[in-house]
C-alpha cells in the first residue's frame, strides 16, 4: 500500500520519533529512518551504538488487527526478516538468538526493540525498531559493549549500500507481515526455528523474576520458547535473555 518514508539525518531514537508519529495518527507501514541516533535504545535499558554512515536505524509503525495471542508473532517475524536480509542480500550466515538478537558467527550484528502502546481497546500500535550493524569496522565499536558485536563489513570486508539492504529488509518484513495478517504464519515459524541457535541447546534464561536453566526444545506457534528444566517440566517462555551454556 502507500507508505510514508521519513528520513532524518539525526534523531535521538527512531523508536521515539515513530511513537510520536503514531500517536499523531500516522498509518501502519510508516517507516522512520535515521543516518545516526544520539540516544539509540536497546532492550533492558541498554543503549544502541548508532554512529553516522555505518548502520541502519529504522522503526516501523504497525497497527495489527490480530487476536492478542498472535501479537507476539511479530517479534519472531521481524527476526526472521532481518536474518534473511543478511543471508540473502549479503550472503552472510545470520542466525537468530531468541527472542530477537541476530548473530553472525556468534557475534551480535543486529537487534530489535518492539514497543507496544495500549489504549482501552487493547493494542493501539506497535513500533518495531531495528538496528543493523552494516559498514562498521570492528575497531570502531566502543569497548564497553556487553555482547560481542560485529557488522556485515567486519564479517565480509566489503562496504555495502545501506539503502539496498534497507529495501531488502522492508520487502521481507512486509511479506512476512502480510502472511501473518492473512493467517499463514507457518512458513515464517518454520524459518524462524531453522534459523534459531537456541533449539537443542542447554541454556540459562534470565527474566525479571530470576533465572532458569534448561534445554530449549522448541519455539511454539506464538514464537515463545519452550524450555525443559532439569526436573522435566516444560516452561513456555514469553520473554527474557538467554545465555547458551557450554557443555
Ligand atoms: C537490542 O538488541 O537491545 C535492541 C536494539 C534495537 C536498536 C534499534 S536502532 C533503531 C531503533 N531505535 C532505537 O532507539 N532502537 C532501535
From TrEMBL:
The gene is birA. It comes from the Bacteria. Its EC number is 6.3.4.15. Belongs to the biotin--protein ligase family. Biotin binds at residues 13-15, 37, 41-43, 108. Residues 1-181 form the BPL/LPL catalytic domain. It comes from Desulfosporosinus lacus DSM 15449. One of its GO terms (molecular function) is ATP binding. It catalyses: biotin + L-lysyl-[protein] + ATP = N(6)-biotinyl-L-lysyl-[protein] + AMP + diphosphate + H(+). Acts both as a biotin--[acetyl-CoA-carboxylase] ligase and a repressor. This is Bifunctional ligase/repressor BirA. GO terms for cellular component: cytoplasm.
Amino acid at each position: 500500500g502507500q507508505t510514508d518514508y521519513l528520513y532524518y539525518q539525526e534523531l535521538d531514537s527512531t523508536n521515539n520519533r515513530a511513537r510520536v508519529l503514531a500517536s499523531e495518527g500516522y498509518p501502519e507501514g510508516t517507516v522512520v529512518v535515521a543516518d545516526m541516533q544520539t540516544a539509540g535504545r536497546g532492550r533492558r535499558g541498554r543503549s544502541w551504538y548508532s554512529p553516522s554512515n555505518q548502520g541502519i536505524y529504522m522503526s516501523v509503525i504497525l497497527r495489527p488487527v490480530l487476536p492478542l495471542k498472535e501479537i507476539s508473532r511479530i517479534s519472531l517475524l521481524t527476526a526472521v526478516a532481518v536474518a534473511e536480509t543478511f543471508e540473502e542480500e549479503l550472503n552472510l550466515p545470520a542466525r537468530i538468538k531468541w527472542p530477537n538478537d541476530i548473530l553472525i558467527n556468534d557475534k551480535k550484528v543486529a537487534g530489535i526493540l518492539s514497543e507496544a502502546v495500549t489504549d482501552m481497546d487493547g493494542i493501539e500500535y506497535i513500533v518495531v525498531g531495528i538496528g543493523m550493524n552494516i559498514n562498521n569496522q570492528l575497531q570502531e565499536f566502543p569497548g564497553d559493549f556487553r555482547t560481542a558485536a560485529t557488522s556485515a563489513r567486519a564479517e565480509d570486508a566489503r562496504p555495502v549500500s545501506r539503502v539496498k539492504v534497507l529495501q531488502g529488509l522492508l520487502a521481507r518484513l512486509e511479506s512476512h507481515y502480510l502472511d501473518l495478517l492473512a493467517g499463514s504464519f507457518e512458513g515464517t515459524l518454520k524459518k524462524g526455528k531453522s534459523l534459531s541457535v537456541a533449539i537443542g541447546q542447554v541454556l540459562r534464561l534470565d527474566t525479571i523474576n530470576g533465572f532458569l536453566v534448561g534445554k530449549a526444545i522448541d519455539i511454539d506457534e506464538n514464537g515463545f520458547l519452550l524450555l525443559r528444566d532439569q526436573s522435566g517440566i516444560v516452561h513456555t517462555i514469553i520473554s527474557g535473555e538467554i545465555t547458551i551454556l557450554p557443555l
